[in-house]
Every structure is written in C-alpha cells, then in structure tokens.
Amino acid sequence: MTKNNAVVIGAGLAGCEAAYQLVRHGVSVTLYEQKPLAFSPAHHSGMFAELVCSNSFRADGLLNAVGLLKQEMREMGSLVMRAADATSVAAGGALAVDRNKFSGFVTQAIAQNAHIHIVREEVTALPEDGTVIVAAGPLVSGPLAENIAEKTGGMLSFFDAAAPIVTAESIDMDKAFYASRYGRGSDYINCAMDEAQYRAFYGALVGADTAELHGFEDAKVFEGCMPVETMAKRGYQTLLYGPLKPVGLSYPGTDKMPFAVVQLRREDDEGRLFNIVGFQTHLKFGEQKRVFSMIPGLENAAFMRYGVMHRNTYIKSPGVLNEYYEMKSRPGLFVAGQLSGVEGYIESASSGMLAGVFAACDLTGLERPRFSRSTACGALAAYVSGYAGADFQPMNINFGIMNTIELRASKKDKKLAVSQRALNEIREIRAAYKTEGSL
Asked: Are residues 219 and 318 in the same domain?
C-alpha cells in the first residue's frame, strides 16, 4: 500500500462516494466489492450503488433537512447527487430515480476511472494499517462482520423492508388517477378508498400471514421503514396518518377528499413500473398478492417484485467513532454508510463523502476541514459519534439534530435561514481548500 493510496471496502452508495472523493483529490483507490461473486439476501444486481429498497431519495428543497443535505452534497461535488439528478424520475416534491440508470451511472463513473482499481472479492478482515474506508453496508455478514464486531465492541441490528413493484399497464386507471398532493403536479398514481373499502383492506392486512424471520424474531424494526402490516397493528387509524393519508388529494373533478389513498410512485424513467409508496412489508408473497389486490385499481396488478424484509446492521458508533467517521482506536480506519449508524440513501452517501474527504486530506498533507452541526452533514457525523443516550439507533437527517437559530420568524423562514447558514459554511470550506489545490 503506497502512501497516496487508500482502500475502500464496499461499492454501495457510501463506498462509491468515498472512492470518488478520494480520486478527485489526488488519491488512488483500491475498491473491494464482493458482487457478483457473492450477494446478500437483498442484492440482485452486479452493478455498484444498487438501491435495494425504495427508489426515492425523499424530499428535495431547503425546507426539509434531507433536501438541505442533498444540496450540501451537490456543493461538495458528490457523485451520488450527480447521478441522482441525471437519472431522476417525476416524484412531486421528492427526488426519485430510475434505479437501474442510477446504478449504471455510478458504476460507469467508478469503473472508467483510471485511478480506481476494482477488486471483485470478499474481504474477510479489516486491514491492520493504512488508510481504509469500510462501507460494507448494513447487510455485512460472515467473517468480516465478526471482525468488525470484535474491533468495535459489538454490533446492533434491525430489520428493514422493501415495498412491492407493479407494472403500470396492470393498474386499472378507470379507478386510479394521477395527482400529487396539494395540486403539485400529477406525478403519482392514486388509488382512493371509501371507508368500507378501507375497513375491509385493514382487516385483511392485520390478519395476513407474515414470512418467517429465521432466527432474528427479536430484532428491532427501524421506525422510518416499518412494515405496513406492523404499522397497521398499532391501530385502525394509524395508516390514515401515514402512507394512506388522504390529505391534499381529492377525487378528480371534485373537492371531495377520499377516506384513504394509496399512492404509487414511478420506478423508471419510462413509467412502466410503479412501487406502492410506504408498503414495505414482510407478508408472505401470496398474502401480498391477496391483500394488496384489494386496493381499488390494483385488483389485477402484476407484481414485478414483492416486498421483502432483511436485516440491517450497524455499529455502536458513539464512543467508537469520532466526528470524522474515524475509529478512535485505529486512526486512518473510517466507517461509512449505514454501518456507521446513519439511516437512508443520502445520509449513507454523505458519510462516505466526508470520510473520503477526510482520508484524502490525511494522504495529501492538508488539515481536515471541520463540518459543524450547523450543516446537515456535520450534524449527522456529530450524532453518530456523540449521541449520549443508551438507546443509540440509526437516524435520518433532521433539523432537530442541527444547531438551532435564534430568529423571530415563521417555521418556514427559520428552516430557510438554517439551510442558508449551512450552505454558507459549506461554501466557505470549499473556498478555503480550493486555494490549496484540493476539494
């Protein structure tokens, strides 16, 4: 391993982003990826940056923390954001992508870079020296998982779930209709229910059979990606305030609001596939077909992918990692992605971006920049490294973990002020390092 070379383990969103940032700043990379020699239970494609759950990167715009995080990453020259913007599909106020085109974009950018050496093999232990970024993903298993657990003092896990995908041509558009909430376009297919239809659907859903969990029955379910049947069992009205909320929608040509609405979001740029929004599930496949076909408009839906459930693993980052995503006991070893304790596609890519920047600074002789909690990416790093409670769990970015701002103004104006402050800091960091030939 040369002085100006880094190792990245894993070619998911975090690993690819880390590798890209390293080579942008003059560091050559050896990138290890086990696919296609070995696949986790949730992965199917040999491409890099595979999206195994939703194709949505969630809300865009500066009134939402994840929208701010995306803009910070654009300012920092993120490969993931460049790929997402280039392969986006219509999704109202959210940023969603054509998953195959997105992965293809990232794969091509990485594979064609002469300074990235790709090694297709499984890594079973962390290197003892050198600059290393571990982005093995939340489904890391086998010897590497054991090795990481040994070095970090134990690992935690929770279940994650993916929603079903149906073909557009199989949706009955005599019953369904195109619309986005509050009249913001027509990017979603909406399947409306009256109270009787919802009651029948709810009863079938809570009584449906779930698949066996194979030894992980006591694992926790992440609140932000909860199976729809688990959510429903919390109460009859829970779904009406969650994925089936009717607010902001009305029957076409009227101002009458449905009792419940199931939304479907485009999966590909051509609009041939749609996923059932918020319907990540662990129901048996036959039960998914039976229950979800009760939704008006989906009676004859052709399922191209049924919902699946898998384990996500993350380390006990507080006390183990510092604010640079670096292991305190092993300087030069960084942990990025969901393994570090962040949750979500963008959050994972953000951690890979920062780990790549910090590692590049070390190898090129620059002082590491400090991203404060006034920025979204800095707040995430502070959360995973400094959470003080005993119940550490993965966290999506939110304004609550960022520095507050004292301003007598509306909530909207406060959020805009927080976002503008964050972007100003990001730009100051970029300007300071640009004069030194980096970042």
From this structure: no
pLDDT, one tens digit per residue, over 89-110 is 988 889 999 999 999 999 999 9
Question: What is the residue-wise DSSP string for 270-338?
Answer: TS-EEEETT----B-HHHHHHHHTTSTT-TT--EEE--EEEEEEEE--BTTB-TTSBBTTSTTEEE-SG
User: Following DSSP, what letter does each residue of 132-190 receive, concatenated?
Assistant: EEE---TT--HHHHHHHHHHHT-EEEEEEEE--EEEGGGS-TTT-EEE-GGG--S-EEE
**96, 19: one domain:** yes
Distance from C-alpha of 56 to C-alpha of 42, rounded to nearest angstrom: 17
Dist. CA 353–CA 82, nearest whole Å: 13
Tens of pLDDT, residues 152-197: 888 887 767 778 989 999 999 999 999 999 988 899 999 999 999 9
The answer, as to whether pTM is greater than 0.85, is: no
Of 306, 328, 363, at which residue does a domain stop? 306
What range defines the domain where residue 46 resides? 5-158+312-434
From 253, 277, 306, the end of a domain falls on 306
Q: Does some domain include residue 439?
A: no
Shared domain for 9 and 149, answered yes or no, is yes
